[in-house]
Amino acid sequence: MTETKTRSPEFRLAAKILGGLRQDLLTDVFAYRSMGRMRTDGPVTGKLPDRMRERIAWTPHMLVGAAAFFVFVVGMASSGSSHLHFLVDVVVAALLPAVTVLMTLVRPVGAFWASLVLAPFVAFLSGDSWPWTENTLVSHLVVLVVVAARTRPRTAAWMWGITALFGALMDNFGFWHDASTTGPFTVVSAFALLIVTVVLVRRDAEREVTVQRTVTAVERDRRTLLEERTTIARELHDVVAHHMSVVAIQAEAAPYRVENPPPELEQAFVTIRENAVSALTELRRVLGVVRADDQEVPDAPQPTLAQLDRLLDNVREAGLETEKTVTGAVCQLPQGVELSAYRIIQEALSNTLRHAPGAAAQVEIGYVLGGLGLRVVNGPPTAPVQPSPGAGHGITGMRERVVMLNGTMTAGATEEGGYEIAAFLPVAFTPDSCTDSSADFTSAPASASGTEEGRESRQTQEVRGAHKMNGMNEMNGMDGANGAYGSGAAYDLNKATGTAQKERTERA
């Protein structure tokens, strides 16, 4: 039986440190790692012309090239006067240090080792200082800064430690020199690498914060979307469950309304009731999970456009002046469409109360042959807007309701400084489901109804509403020439409105 000896924490720490050194400075030393261009999408560079931004993107490369040229000039200034000695100094003391600086653009780790090894040779030939001369000191400092900026803070620490250790070892071989440059260079390089490390850590922290903010925003939008969909599904569950319950009850009571019904009819109603109960059970099992455990089913039916006047009265009591305009013949809508239309108007008015205090709002409802158009517009706020924490989900909920019904919606600021929400909900109307409601087209004063002026006023408002709804139809992809909607339903809003006005004029 063999025993597995666990290694000590000190050994694991040392192995981790040496592994980091091997990964950063000993693996693929001369690997090709081209320096990327600088980002130009910042708050300042992003506003510059495209051609200038293309040039500014090469700023790091130009700075490295300028540093290499400066190292070459310093090396040339310290060259000897004799012809042979001058050529050696040009190659070793001036050209090679400049080349090591340029190597940081493509092979940063290799440039560090080359600059480190080159320093004593240049110092031996020049004989000025040991182990770094003026030009090698500048070149190695530039190499350290550039390589540290291109790698990670751990690499900067390794390079500084190796450089300090290398300088201490070289001091033992430079006994013929009175002064050593290891101490000053170690201090200067430490400050330079510290600055680079701080900048790198801050940049990584900002990048991490940006990523976290993006992820948080995405998760918040997704959570908001799921919450809105859950609310919509819960309301539709109540609507459909109510209708299925009515179908089951009517199917059970229908045979008792006919004297001596045939067995086939009774069996048909029994089958209808069984199917309705089965569908209702499946519906509650599938969609009932969207309701919280502590949330009860509402006793009252879900609101529809018939209760819109009560909603407008409530917002008027809250201080919001609201006007309602109805265009076209009022038609019977599916209860899901009625509920979504009511919720859209309710949320739009709630946003007006929250974000535009003191402003007036106008609600426009248009019944056309292609569906139902909604428009809620408010003016600019006349009072200071109070901060509203937790707001910002209303538009998402409205869009979800519109998308659920295959409709379209736009929301944005108006030229007057207010806000406008326009939505179109496609509905296939039948002639029997629509009634002429010319007396209820607008919220005009009662004193004008029944008179010629009242009829002219209503007709004028109908024409204006028709033009506004025509703009909605164009927004939602309807062809004004032939009145074709995307699903194939054909209508002409202006023609239909003109025909309705002509019939009312003839009746008058």
If you had to describe this structure to a student in words, what would you say it looks like?
There is one protein chain. The protein is an alpha+beta fold and 508 residues long. The protein contains 14 helices and five strands. The protein has a five-stranded mixed β-sheet, sandwiched between helices. Strand 2 and strand 3 form a beta hairpin. The radius of gyration is 40 Å and the shape is elongated. It starts with 8 loop residues before the first helix and ends with a helix. The C terminus is likely disordered.
List the helices and strands in order.
Answer: HHHHHHHHHHEHEEHEEHH
Evaluate the radius of gyration. 40 Å
The span between the termini is 110 Å
Task: Assign a percent range to the helix content.
Answer: 55-70%
Q: How would you state the average pLDDT, rounded?
A: 77
Question: What is the SS-derived class?
Answer: alpha+beta
Beta-strand content bin: 5-15%
Number of strands: 5
Low-confidence stretches: 437-508
Give the overall form.
elongated
Q: Biggest β-sheet, characterized?
A: 5 strands, mixed
The strands making up the biggest β-sheet line up spatially as 1-2-3-5-4
- Helix count? 14
Oligomer status: single chain
Q: Strands, helices and their partners?
A:
Elements: H1 9-26, H2 50-56, H3 59-77, H4 83-103, H5 108-126, H6 134-150, H7 153-173, H8 182-253, H9 263-287, H10 308-317, E1 322-327, H11 335-355, E2 361-368, E3 371-378, H12 394-404, E4 408-413, E5 419-426, H13 452-475, H14 493-507
Parallel strand pairs: 1-2
Antiparallel strand pairs: 2-3, 3-5, 4-5
